[in-house]
Design a protein that fits this description.
This protein is mainly β and 106 residues long. It contains 1 helix and 7 strands. Helices cover 4% and strands 53% of the residues. It starts with a strand and ends in an 11-residue tail after the last strand.
Length: 106
């Protein structure tokens, strides 16, 4: 699965080792996101696993609700492109600052 995060909402930040929950408004680029899937995200150079717990689709709007044991802060995922099939960090998680995927955060 590959998707771009438009915005992050409902962040419940926890300390390291506890569960943080948040929702992401996304556009799917390749494949589709479904509950039970996981992906690797990064905080600076630290990788951490994120689990998709729920997916809500309404017309072209897709919201995924996630959890992780890593502390998550507001806007951490805004404009991130996530590819669960990527082999290296630069492929798995990067910020789309040059808007290659043509949709900006709202």
């Amino acid at each position: 699965m590959k998707f771009k995060v438009l915005s992050q909402t409902d962040t419940q930040q926890r300390s390291a080792g506890a569960t943080s929950t948040f929702c992401l408004r996304v556009i799917e680029i390749e494949g589709s996101v479904s509950p039970g899937m996981s992906f690797i995200a990064y905080c600076t150079h630290h990788p951490f696993e994120v689990w998709v717990r729920a997916v809500e689709k309404y017309e072209t709007n897709i919201t995924i609700c996630c959890e992780t044991t890593w502390p998550v802060y507001e806007e951490m995922f805004d404009l991130a492109v996530i590819d669960s099939t990527g082999l290296f960090r630069k492929d798995r998680f990067f910020y789309d600052h040059d808007n290659r995927y043509s949709v900006t955060a709202l």
